[in-house]
Amino acid sequence: MNDHTTRLPDGRSVQVAAGARERLCCGVIVLDPISVFDNPLVAQATAEVGRILQQKHDGLLPSEIEGLAEARTLYKSFGMDPSRHRPSSEALLRRVMKGKDLYQISNAVDSCNLACLKFLLPVGMYDLDLVAGDVVLRSGHEGESYPGIRKGDVNLSGRLGLFDQDGPFGSPTSDSARTCVFPGTKRVLAIIMATNDYPAARMTAAVDIFIDLFTEHCKATESFRAILGGSS
Questions:
Q1: pTM of this structure
Q2: Whether residue 1 has pLDDT greater than 60
Q3: Are 217 and 42 in contact (CB under 8 A)?
Q4: Inter-residue contact 127 to 181 (CB < 8 Å)
């Protein structure tokens, strides 16, 4: 494997395609096993982090919050306007900055949202058993899209997306209905995304945060991790 391709424990590969390698760093995580259930402790932890972020960033516009610049730069590098198609991390932060609680879905989804708030990078999270074959991160072609969770089709034309042998199934904005985590999920694939200039050491720290939260709140076990791209 090279710095842009890794192989999961089940033999499948995760690859950043040639056209995206100069723009993308990502942390690749497999949690196996994981238990998906309602856990109010995640909501309590998220509320506390929300209060801290409100105090820290009170009165600032999203463009003035230093931690959001990374995801915004990533979006712009793929021709996406972060003011129109917000990174998932920014959308979550904007909600807590308004004093609103995050939607409580499950311990897994809630823990993923909490991780996003902690390191302010977009994360794609998928049921690994619903992902078909190898995974490639690349710019979408004209007409490529997928049904989002609780929304219409997510357009990937010219935008960063995740693809398997059945087509597109994720992006830094929204996960897909086809591969979403549900109560029966036993294995999770998570991809944390940043620009290729993002220090690999900082991405490693984000991976640590993600895994620690899932270990605490989802009875999850780390099965695999890798960093693709990033600066030294």
A1: 0.96
A2: no
A3: yes
A4: yes
3-state secondary structure the chain: CCCCEEECCCCCEEEECHHHCCCCEEEEEEECCCCCCCCHHHHHHHHHHHHHHHHHHCCCCHHHCHHHHHHHHHHHHCCCCCCCCCCHHHHHHHHHHCCCCCCCCCHHHHHHHHHHHHHCCCEEEEEHHHCCCCEEEEEECCCCEEEECCCCEEECECCEEEEECCEEEECCCCCECCCCCCCCCCCEEEEEEECCCCEHHHHHHHHHHHHHHHHHHHCCCEEEEEEECCEC
CA–CA dist 196, 77 (Å, integer): 10
CA 23 to CA 231: how far, in whole Å?
Answer: 11
Query: pLDDT (tens digit, 9 = 90+) per residue, 127-175?
Result: 999 999 999 999 999 999 999 997 789 999 999 999 999 999 999 999 9
- How far is residue 179's CA from residue 201's CA, in Å, rounded to a whole number? 29
Report whether 92 contacts 102 (CB < 8 A): yes
Q: What is the CATH number of domain 5-228?
A: 3.50.40.10
Residues 211, 28 contacting (CB under 8 angstroms): no
